[in-house]
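Q: What structure does this chain adopt?
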Amino acid sequence: MMTLQEINKTYNRIIGLLDAKELKEAFEQTQSLIAGIRDYSFMDQLNELQDTYKYMLRYRLEGAKDPMEDQIYHNVIASTYQLADQVRNKALIVESPLTYYSYRRSLRKQPIPSYTQLHKELQEMAAYQSEAGDTVVGVSRKIEAATEQLFNKLWTADPLSTEEVVDLRALLRDKNLPFEVACQVISALLLALQTSFDIAKLSLLFDAAELDHEEIRCRALICILLTLSFYRERTAVYPEIDRRLAALADFIPDFTSLLRQITLRFILARETEKINQKLQNEILPQLLKNNPILNQKIQAEEISPELFSEGMNPEWEAYLSSQQTEKQMEAFAEMQREGADMMHSSFVHLKHYPFFREVGNWFLPFSMSHSAIQAILDGADKATTLLNLLTQNRNICNSDKYSLYLSMTDIPKQLRQMMSQKMGDEMIGLIKKSTSNLQSPQKQRELIIGQYVQDLYRFFKLYPSHLDFEDVFTYPLDFHNLTLLKPYMADKETLSTIGEYYLRKNYFADALTVFNQLSEIDEENGELFQKKGYCKQMMGQTEEALQTYLRADLTHTDSKWLNRRIASCYRNLKQPEKALIYYRRLEAKQPNDMNLQINIGHCYLELRNFSEALKYFFKVDYLDNQSTKAWRPIAWCSFLIGKYDQARNYYRKILANKPTTQDYLNAGHTEWALQQLKQAVSYYKEAVRCEQGHFDTFLEAFRQDIPDLMQAGIEEKEIPLMLDQVRYVSSD
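A:
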């Protein structure tokens, strides 16, 4: 009998073989899986699939043209995928500890109403609630319980029958039900499809995307894209998906724009962990460092992004004025304006409430009439008013809004009343003003997409048993690269927008893929070749970057940026003579650019034309005598051409200004060349000290300079004697 690990390993091998269209091997592995779980009830189905495939191959071998061949082939592949799913699930249902299978086992122990029965129950309660009022807590709880039952039933359902699809389609289209019901159906379908593919469930997502409700439509489309991405190979054998996408494109006027918005939002979701790290490792420590009082009064884990928003305590503002902190705060504000998930770290510790033990509650649209909220509200105090306003903040997703209210249960009622008394009307008015701005339909849609993506992110990262689920955010989610979606996302505007976004977020490999696609559309776009070259260079592909830059140079010869990039590539490839050609182009237009002069000097230094290099380094030193950037190359060039006194003068200035190991090493070389052996040993000792006493590290750097020492007149036999002397003094 196979272990759970062996079952999953064999299943994954089958899926990989089917993705690669290696059917014979897939059949053999499926047979092994069936034998491994000792359930031979699937063998007839497997044999039938193999026979069909063999007949198709034989027919093809005989040279006969079968107009149904493609359909038969796709059906065999699709059916084999389904069979592998069924065999695996049959084995895991009994013993797997994963949340999905635990839910299945517990649900099967009690009578489960049909989808029609649940629909009817929801209809009756929704009608009663409509007549009696939204705040009837008892009715709300019944609707929530029925919706939760519907969610769990659908999430753990076997492949849907035709009758079940009809029932669920009717439920989705029932406008008399709260829209939250359809939203929960959509999320349940997503989780169900994650466990095993079912074309009927995917079809229901398409049905939901065609409904005339913006939130339902956006959520459904997001789940469609995630499913297509998750099963990017398998979905190719279902031609009906192509037809449904085409119908959806006809139904939604700005379909491509909507796909683009969703894609950009998932790219932005990648930034969440970076933002968390930046908050914890840079911004918060800097705030606490700048403000010793704040450091004493507030622990880092208690600071939330609200600290940085408008309305900050005036007592803190004086401590936020340092240049470094200001830059960080500006970057923080810019990320907020862009719609980045700035709140994730603030709500990580507010997901422990019983409310979040139910899987479905992580996806609920926020509603003030939810019984969990009504149980907390006990009057129109200012604290409650403030919470009501905060939940209108577009930067807070549905899941976090529930967290805000549920966190009130941790605060004693007496303390809440005290907070209310101290809470000024000005603060409430300020927040009200910031949340009352009317949003355009476009912005509203962006808001819906952003919040649902964040809700998904919370679930896959923070749900107590989140490791039991395939984290969709670990996948590329490059929807524009899916074959099925290319007809709708291959236009120049969409690819340009996505490519630029990748580039701005430093996802160079992804950006390059998009720019390559754009190159097929616009072959003569020199700017596009510049961007491609930049991506390659940032990925460490210097030779490839250079060739791409040179292609761009055919049409953008005068580009200063491009000339600098080409020159830097030649330098990295150890071709300074070619780099000089491009630096000289720039020098003709910017004769006093110090960075340019430094780079030209380094090219001459690499060519060992030390006299010419010195001219440029001295020019930099003259143009900006407050800068130290030319001191090191001047000192080293002076040493190399035998101007040891000049080199000594510069090294003395360098050693007085935050010297490095190399500075002490080079200063020691200079003193040795001047036959000042004691001073040379002293500098070498300091170089060893800079390496925390690791003589071997010092020795590695020293040996690289031996040819230059010998050129300076140091005899080879003196070198080991000097090194031993340094060993002695360094060990004292």
